[in-house]
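Worked Example 4.2. Consider the chain below.
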Amino acid sequence: QVQLVESGGGLVQAGGSLRLSCAASGSIFSINTMGWYRQAPGKQRELVATITSGGSTNYADSVKGRFTISRVNAKNTMYLQMNSLKPEDTAVYYCKLIWYKGGAYVYWGQGTQVTVSS
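Applying the procedure from the previous section yields the following C-alpha cells:
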C-alpha cells in the first residue's frame, strides 16, 4: 500500500515563503512522476508542478519563477519551495505520485492548506 503524506502548509503574508514536503512510503516503482496540485474553494484542482524520477520538471505558468519543485529519490520525498507568495496561491495543495507498469498507478496525499493573506 502506497501512502503520501504532505506537510509544511500554513498561513503566510503576501510576499512570504513556504516549503511543502511530500513523503511517499510503500512499494513504489522507481521510474515515476511526482507532482503538486492545488484546489482553491469553488475551483477545480489544477497542476502546480511536476518532477520525474529523472529530474525533469514542469510548471504552471502562474508559478514559474516563484516556485521550485525538487525531490530526493532515495527518500521518496518531494518538495515545493514557494517564494513571493500571492493571495491567489491560497489553496489546498495535494501531492500526487504516478507510474506506468502494465497500467497506471495513481496515488494522492490528503492535502495541506496554504493560506496567503494580503
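The mean pLDDT is 97. Residues 50 and 56 are 8 Å apart (CA to CA). Compare this with Example 4.1 before moving on.
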